[in-house]
Amino acid sequence: MEAVGRLAGGIAHDFNNMLTVITGYGEWMLEQIPAGSPLVENASEILLAANRASALTSQLLSFSRKQIIQPVILDLNALVSRLDPMLRRLIGDDVELVVATSPELGLIRADPGQIEQVVMNLVVNARDAMPKGAS
Q1: Which residues lie closer than 8 Å to 16 by C-beta, 6 or more apart?
Q2: CA dist 85 to 6, 16, 63, 120, Å?
Q3: Beta bridge partner(s), residue 134
Q4: E strand spans, the chain
Q5: Which of 62, 35, 66 is nearest to 117 (CA)?
Q6: What is the rounded distance in angstroms from the CA atom of residue 7 to the CA atom of residue 96?
Q7: C-alpha distance from residue 134 to each of 46, 50, 84, 126, 128 (Å)
Q8: CA-to-CA distance for 88 and 53, rounded, in angstroms?
Q9: What confidence score (pLDDT) does residue 123 get?
Q10: Are 130 and 93 in contact (CB under 8 A)?
């Protein structure tokens, strides 16, 4: 288990270096693209994906015991709403995704990256359980 942790930590560190470059170029692209251009949305999606990949990297570092989990106060409705566009692309067109938020849902204290990973894993597992799609 120690060796797996070291391997995960090494991979996460290298991946994080690549994400720094991706994020830097994504931010530069956003500065260069004129406001109102349809490319703004594409560049923003690149940055969003890089941020999610960074959260995954944090989880790998946490697994390797090189990073401490950092719980914060979270609004699950907002977190799931932010994930919605990415989740829809992740599952494809043959599965209908229904996101049901609740105004009565209270705040929680958790690591946002871990909660995002749990939601993504649930969605991917549900998609894989429906190989012929569902609606």
Answers
A1: 54, 57, 61
A2: 34, 23, 27, 12
A3: 95
A4: 72-74, 108-110
A5: 62
A6: 37
A7: 28, 29, 17, 10, 11
A8: 17
A9: 84
A10: no
Contacts of 27 (CB under 8 A, 6+ apart): 47
Angle at CA 70, nearest 5°, toward 43 and 1?
100
Q: Quote the crossing angle between the two packed helices 112-128 and 76-91, to the nearest 10°.
A: 40
Amino acid type, 83: L
With tokens 């995002």, the residue in question is 116
Find where tokens 């090494």 sit: 10
Radius of gyration of the chain (CA): 17
Per-residue pLDDT of the chain (135 residues; tens, 9 = 90+): 567 667 777 777 788 788 888 988 888 998 899 988 989 888 888 888 888 887 777 767 766 665 567 789 999 999 999 888 888 877 877 888 899 999 999 999 998 877 887 888 788 888 888 777 655
